[in-house]
Design goal:
heterotrimer; A alpha/beta (248); B alpha/beta (277); C mainly alpha (306); A: 248 residues; alpha/beta; Rossmann fold; six-stranded mixed β-sheet; 9 helices; 10 strands; 27% strand; B: 277 residues; five-stranded antiparallel β-sheet; 11 helices; 38% helix; 24% strand; globular
């Protein structure tokens, strides 16, 4: 099986601050892979480095067998798309859903726009009634669905998910997670998902990497984590914390 | 158990361009010297309930209640001056993000000292001593150093501890904590909760813990109130959460992914209009 | 139209589920319009500007006399009367007619300046803000140089170099009024350039040109419109000032500033010669200011998303 994303000793430096310190990662095609960690662990930076939003100081990133340089070409973005954390910040405030979804099609010169937009909205469970609304006329969950539709409309094979549900209510989170699982199954997508919540990662991903201070702590399978078969104390701490408050 | 706070049929209404919006629609509960959790999703009115008790509702909103009394004082009849005197001295509030609730241009220590000196007549030296002791009580390891730091120089967890220290310095009898740990990392979250728990127990305070996280609240509080669309849909003992009756409470508990429980797809909440009726 | 028809049309405009692009756009425009008309003074400002447009369009019909040819023999410096509403000037011309025709020149100046200065400012500001680095530094230092001189002095220098005349006055004012717009556009750009929705467009492979033009500029336009409207009064006054100093419109053009300049000799005895155009400038400036204030409330992107 080929690798969808392969990262070797990636370093990212912002103004002398080493956000990523030589992290390596290998995500198989069709796999769902999780990155877990607390704030400052570098998990989101890793995602952004793949997307080309954070500059790599050294190391290599390869997507679908092709090693990436500094820039990203248009073809890259037809393979890799991203869903952001904050549904209130990721939709343009002056554009309708329709305009938002049309933009990627216009950039890539795709002709059957009407049909694709209708299909994308249906796929994320919104339907045509939402097509001409502005972002402020949508709830948080609906906005995140629009963001997912926008990511899917170019028919990518890899989806980068940056805490896609952490700003949502628990009940809406369940709906969005279900939707993500469904589109992944239907489109045979590869997921690379970032979250601070171990439960979400074990629910969504087959394998995961625990990160802390820009470094990989350990690589685990979801079943290892569920069975508490972890090596590092830090992971154990995270596991304990995810079980809620214990008096004493 | 003596009752600290008595709330009966509390309503908070906001006028908007399109008409009146009722954020809180007839909430009743009472609080003793215990930990009470208020849980709900965004828009459930949980935060507005806390703010109404605190007297921090925006001026354009209307508050009404059959009863809203703290230790026998009718809060709705109290003058703004009396409310101010209560705030900080006898009722304290912790908000979600310490970054926004601490004064950015004043050192943490000075803020705590100021808080103390507005409510009690103490000398500067004594105030400083008590502030340092308070910082120690919230498990800040080097209180003398942190005393002189400004809020932007400390981490989120440290900031929230400083906030707790500031709120507890005047020895309030009741504390309202609105999502006090939601902005913190999970491991830090538990430390802060541990500190809060110990201080509340030691001082015999009443605590209202407002959160969206049903599981966290039930592991921390004695009693839980579940709110939906401005109303209380269920009140129950935290230990009896698993026997919750209301479909909303059960749905909320169910829809969160849990480690070791494989459910694909996750059960989703089927909202019934009669819940909000 | 019946009450129900009005009612249903309003519902159609305010629909939470617009069924077409046009409906969504009209709905948004309607909300903005309602917010605008809720402000009475802004509405008065709008009426003044509409009146100005009508007067300029219909000056030929409304004016009872010729604006340039006067009756030197019988009608010099007459006080306001039923025949000459605002009196006559030293060349026997009817001031009322001159003011009506002068509105054309006022509009000409204001519109041309807005058309030249606003796009320059918008372009410089958004490009500087989005590109950052050297581009930003160079563009903003140029802006600073323009800002360092008082507007009228700089305009004077330009007109002195280009030669007097209303076209050159317009050009000079435009050249001196774009820097504040660039500043505003840059500030707006800096606040949105790191937002997720701009990153999302980057992740679609959009070129920087496209991002600036189609995603950032629309966000800057509303604050720019407000600023330009509020500046209109200043532009009119600068044009009048240049006219007054003899560097703007040249006689016999009925430009309001030039009219004040020629009337100043009689200002103590025949106050209406300078007073009437002065009053016209006052009313129109006030109109633009009120309109601008109203637009600020109606178009503010921060309150606009409610």
């Amino acid at each position: 099986m080929t690798s969808a994303i392969s990262i070797e000793r990636l370093e990212v430096v912002f103004d002398r601050f080493r956000a990523l310190k030589g992290v390596s990662l290998d995500v198989k095609e069709g796999e769902s892979y999780g990155l877990v960690g607390e704030s400052g662990s570098g998990k989101s930076t890793l995602l952004r480095a793949i997307a080309g939003l954070a500059p790599a100081a050294s190391g290599t990133i390869a997507v679908n067998g092709k090693t990436l340089g500094r820039g990203r070409d248009k073809a890259f973005y037809r393979d890799v798309q991203m869903v952001f954390q904050d549904p209130y910040g990721s939709l343009h405030p002056r554009q309708t859903v329709d305009r938002l979804l049309q933009e990627p099609l216009a950039i890539h010169g795709i002709a059957d726009g009407e049909k694709r937009i209708e299909r994308a909205l249906d796929e994320v469970g919104l339907g045509n009634g939402f097509r001409f609304r502005y972002a402020h006329q949508l709830s948080g969950g609906q906005r995140q669905r629009v963001a997912i539709a926008r990511a899917l409309i170019l028919e990518p094979s890899i989806l980068l998910l940056d805490e896609p549900t952490s700003a949502l209510d628990a009940s809406v989170q369940a709906e969005v997670l279900n939707l993500l699982e469904e589109v992944r199954r239907r489109r045979k997508l590869t997921f690379l998902m970032v979250s601070h919540d171990l439960a979400i990662i074990t629910h969504m991903c087959e394998r995961l990497m625990v990160m802390q201070n820009g470094e990989a702590v350990e690589n685990l399978t979801a079943s290892q984590l569920i069975g508490h078969r972890v090596e590092k104390d830090y992971t154990r701490n995270l596991l304990r914390a995810s079980e809620g408050f214990v008096r004493g | 158990m003596s009752t600290l706070l008595d709330v009966e049929d509390l309503r908070v209404t906001f006028p908007t361009r399109t008409g009146l919006i009722e954020a809180v629609r007839g909430v009743s509960f009472s609080l003793g010297r215990e930990r009470l959790g208020i849980v709900g999703e965004s828009g459930s009115g949980k935060s507005q309930t806390g703010r109404a008790i605190m007297g921090l509702t925006p001026p354009q909103a209307r508050i009404s209640a059959d009863k809203l009394s703290f230790d026998g004082i009718d809060l709705l009849a109290a003058s703004p001056r009396e409310r101010r005197a209560l705030r900080g001295k006898r009722i304290a509030m912790i908000l979600q993000d310490p970054k926004y609730s601490l004064d950015p241009v004043m050192s943490i220590g000075r803020q705590i000292v100021e808080t103390l000196r507005t409510h009690e007549k103490v000398s500067k030296a004594e105030a400083r001593e008590r502030a340092l002791a308070m910082l120690e009580a919230v498990q800040i390891r080097d209180p003398r150093r942190v005393f002189d730091l400004h809020p932007h120089e400390v981490s989120g967890g440290m900031g929230q501890r400083a906030m707790i220290a500031m709120m507890l310095i005047a020895g309030p009898e009741m504390m309202i904590a609105d999502e006090p740990t939601s902005a913190l990392d999970v491991t830090v979250q538990l430390d802060v909760l541990g500190i809060l728990d110990r201080l509340v127990a030691e001082r015999g305070m009443g605590l209202i813990f407002i959160s969206h996280d049903l599981r966290l609240v039930s592991s921390f509080c004695d009693r839980v109130i579940v709110m939906y669309a401005g109303k209380v849909v269920e009140q129950l003992k935290a230990s009896e959460l698993s026997q919750a009756q209301h479909p909303y409470t059960r749905g909320l508990l169910n829809c969160m992914p849990r480690i070791g429980f494989e459910r694909h797809p996750l059960p989703v909440l089927d909202r019934k209009p009669e819940w909000a009726a | 139209m019946s009450v129900e028809a009005v009612q249903s049309r309003r519902e159609w405009l305010l629909s939470e589920r617009p069924a077409s692009r046009t409906q969504a756009r009209l709905g948004r425009a309607y909300v903005t319009w309602r917010r605008f008309t809720a402000n009475r003074l802004a509405f008065v400002g709008l009426l003044i500007i509409i009146a100005l447009l009508l007067v300029a369009a219909l000056a030929g019909v409304l004016a009872p006399y010729s604006p340039t040819i006067g009756d030197l023999k019988n009608a010099r410096l007459l006080a306001p009367s039923a025949e000459h509403w605002f009196g006559t000037d030293d060349l026997g011309r009817d001031i009322y007619s001159r003011i009506l025709y002068g509105s054309r020149w006022t509009l000409y100046v204001v519109i041309l300046v807005a058309i030249i200065a606003a796009p320059i400012g918008l372009l410089v500001g958004t490009v500087a803000g989005y590109a950052g680095g050297w581009t930003d530094a160079i563009l903003m230092r140029i802006t600073d140089i323009f800002l360092a001189f008082p507007k009228l002095i700089l305009a004077l220098a330009f007109v002195a170099a280009l030669g007097p005349g209303i076209e050159n006055a317009v050009l000079a004012i435009a050249i001196t009024s774009w820097p504040p717009y660039a500043r505003i556009a840059r500030a707006e750009t800096l606040t949105v350039r790191n937002s997720d929705y701009i990153k999302a467009v980057q992740l679609m492979g959009a070129s920087p040109f496209r991002i600036v033009l189609r995603h950032i500029m629309p966000l800057c336009i509303s604050s720019l419109i407000v600023r330009v409207t509020l500046d209109m009064a200043g532009i009119i006054l600068t044009a009048a000032g240049l006219g007054f100093l003899g560097l703007g419109a040249q006689p016999p053009l009925p430009e309001w500033g030039t009219m004040i300049a020629s009337g100043r000799r009689f200002v103590l005895d025949q106050w209406w010669v300078a007073g009437a155009p002065g009053f016209a400038i006052l009313i129109v400036s006030l109109g633009f200011n009120l309109l601008g204030d109203g637009l600020r409330d109606a178009l503010d992107p921060r309150s606009g998303d409610q």
